[in-house]
Amino acid sequence: MDGLVEFRTGDGAVVAVEGVEERSGSRLVSRGDGTVQATRTFEGALDGVRAAAESALRVFRDGSLKPDGVEIEFGVKLSAETGAFIAKGTAEGHLVVKLSWSPSAPEAGVREAGSAS
Length: 117
What we know:
This protein is of the alpha+beta class. The protein has 1 helix and 7 strands. About 10% of the residues are buried.
């Protein structure tokens, strides 16, 4: 574990997460227990991730496939200075996309076989 990073939410709650260590540049000084105070709010740290999710959803919803449902899963790492970023899997970025289609409902004028008039 690289250490804990404390993010404050917009309403003042504290969210402690396992942070990733910045490999280059300056380093934040942690308290005696190893916890670092984040420079952004929790919501602010997730802004870039939310924008990435919205963009990915637009790509799949507005395309020619027209799925009924889109599920996008990606890992997120949190850093005290950088905020949130999409986590790298083994060698590439981690992103899972699931598209779903519901079976079409029977048309209004078509009756099931054997139904009474």
